[in-house]
Design a protein that fits this description.
The protein has 355 residues and is mainly α. The protein is 52% helix and 9% strand. It is built from 14 helices and 7 strands. Helix 3 crosses helix 13, helix 11 crosses helix 12 and helix 11 packs across helix 13. The protein starts with 6 loop residues before the first strand and ends in a 5-residue tail after the last helix. The chain is globular and about 65 Å long. The chain has 2 domains: 229 residues, Rossmann fold (3-Layer(aba) Sandwich), CATH 3.40.50.620; 93 residues, Tyrosyl-Transfer RNA Synthetase, CATH 1.10.240.10. The structure holds adenosine-5'-tetraphosphate. Adenosine-5'-tetraphosphate binds next to helix 1.
Length: 355
C-alpha cells in the first residue's frame, strides 16, 4: 500500500480572451509548479460548451489558450498539455460521478447560481453538472493538487465530496480488488481509490477583481472591456485601462491593514504584488503614502513589462497551427494512456463488463 504519487492537474476554458485574473490566479502558478511536480494542464473545451453551445471559433480559442500556456513557460515535453475532448474518459468518468453526486450538491454551487441567474429551470443540464465533469478531470489522473483561483474553491470541495462518496460506496469492492490507498479523512484513515485532492489557492492574486468595481471578480464575461486586462492587450491599452481603473481619493496606506474597506486599492496593490512576485506588504513598503497618480503609472509600466513578452510569444505560437495541434495531439495520447489505466480499474470497481 503506498500513498498517492503527487500530481498537479488544472484546466482553463477556451471561452474568450484570457485576462490578468486567469494569468495571475492560475497560469503563473502552473508554470512555477512544473519545477517541483509532474503536471497535467488541460484546455477544458467540453466545459466551455456549458457557456456557449454553438461556438464558431472554439478550435481557435482552444489553440489560443494552448499558446498562452506555452508562451507563459509551460513545457509540453516534460509535462502534459492537451484539450479535454481528445480523452473521452473525461466524459465517461463524469457520467459515473453524475450517478455518485447528488442534485442538491450541484444546486448549492454559487457558480451555477450566478451563471444560471433567475431562470434556473432553463439552464442547461451541463451547467448544473459542470462540477461533476471537473471532478472527473482531476480524479481521472488521481491528481493530488489543483492550482486554481479562489472562485474555484467550492468546486474543489465538491470534488473531495465526490471522491469520498465513491470511496465509501465502493469500499468493499475497492478492498476486494486490492486497488485502495490509505487516505486520511479527518481523524480517520480509510482505504480509497481516489485521493482527497488539495486545492492550491493563495498569494496576493488569488482573486483579482474588476478594474471598474472592486466587489466583482475580473471575468471574461464582463460586458465592459475596461474591467479587465486581456493577455492580448497592447501597451497603450494596458496603460489606458489602469489609468481609468476605479480608485478612491486617499493615498496608499503603509500597512496591509489600511487596505481594509478599500477594495479597489487592495485590488491594484494585489495586481502589483502578483506581477512583481512580492507580497502586498512589500508593495506598500515602496508606495505607502503615495497617491494613485504615482502608483498607477508604476503599475502600468510593470504590467506592460511582464505581459508584453507573453502576448508577443502567444501571437507567434497561435499562428503556428501545426505546432500547437501537434502539442495537443501528443499530450492527448499521453493523457489518454493514463486515463485508460484509471478507467479500467473504475469500470472493475463499478462492476461494468469489459474485456
Ligand atoms: N478574477 C480572477 N482572479 C484569480 N483567478 C481567476 N480565475 C478566473 N478568474 C480569476 C482562475 O482562472 C482559471 C481559469 O478560469 P476558467 O476560464 O476556467 O474559468 P472562469 O473562472 O469561469 O474564468 P472567467 O474568466 O471568470 O470566466 P467567466 O467570465 O465565464 O466567469 C481558474 O483557475 C480560475 O479560478
Amino acid at each position: 500500500m503506498s500513498a498517492f504519487k503527487p500530481l498537479v492537474f488544472s484546466g482553463v476554458q477556451p471561452t474568450g480572451n484570457l485576462h490578468l485574473g486567469n494569468y495571475l490566479g492560475a497560469i503563473k502558478k502552473f508554470v512555477a509548479l512544473q519545477e517541483t511536480s509532474d503536471c497535467i494542464y488541460c484546455v477544458v473545451d467540453l466545459h466551455s460548451l456549458t457557456a456557449q453551445l454553438v461556438h464558431a471559433d472554439l478550435q481557435d480559442q482552444t489553440r489560443s489558450i494552448t499558446a498562452a500556456f506555452l508562451a507563459s513557460g509551460i513545457d509540453p515535453k516534460k509535462h502534459i498539455v492537451f484539450n479535454q475532448s481528445r480523452v473521452m474518459q473525461h466524459a465517461e468518468l463524469a457520467w459515473i460521478f453524475n450517478c455518485v453526486a447528488r442534485i442538491g450538491w450541484m444546486n448549492r454551487m454559487t457558480q451555477f447560481k450566478d451563471k444560471a441567474g433567475k431562470d434556473r429551470e432553463n439552464a442547461s443540464l451541463g451547467l448544473l453538472a459542470y462540477p461533476s465533469l471537473m471532478a472527473a478531470d482531476i480524479l481521472l489522473y488521481r491528481a493530488t493538487h489543483v492550482p486554481v483561483g479562489e472562485d474555484q474553491k467550492q468546486h474543489l470541495e465538491l470534488t473531495r465530496d465526490i471522491a469520498q462518496k465513491f470511496n465509501n460506496d465502493f469500499s468493499a469492492r475497492i478492498a476486494e480488488l486490492g486497488v485502495g490507498v490509505e487516505i486520511q479523512v479527518g481523524e480517520e484513515t480509510v482505504n480509497g481509490f481516489f485521493p482527497m485532492t488539495e486545492p492550491l489557492i493563495g498569494g496576493p492574486a488569488a482573486r483579482i477583481m474588476s478594474l471598474r468595481d472592486g466587489s466583482k471578480k475580473m471575468s471574461k464575461s464582463d460586458p465592459s472591456d475596461l474591467s479587465r486586462i486581456n493577455l492580448t492587450d497592447d501597451a497603450d491599452t494596458i496603460s489606458k485601462k489602469i489609468k481609468k481603473a476605479k480608485t478612491d481619493p486617499d493615498a496608499l496606506p503603509s500597512e496591509v491593514d489600511g487596505l481594509a474597506g478599500r477594495p479597489e486599492a487592495e485590488n491594484l496593490v494585489g495586481i502589483y504584488a502578483g506581477l512583481a512576485d512580492i507580497g502586498k506588504e512589500a508593495v506598500l513598503g515602496q508606495f505607502g503614502g503615495q497617491q494613485f497618480s504615482v502608483f498607477k503609472p508604476a503599475l502600468a509600466d510593470l504590467a506592460v513589462d511582464k505581459l508584453a513578452p507573453v502576448a508577443a510569444e502567444m501571437r507567434r505560437i497561435s499562428a503556428d497551427h501545426a505546432y500547437v495541434d501537434g502539442v495537443l495531439r501528443d499530450g492527448g495520447e499521453r493523457a489518454g494512456n493514463l486515463a485508460e489505466t484509471t478507467m479500467k480499474t473504475v469500470r472493475d470497481i463499478v462492476g461494468l463488463l469489459q474485456g
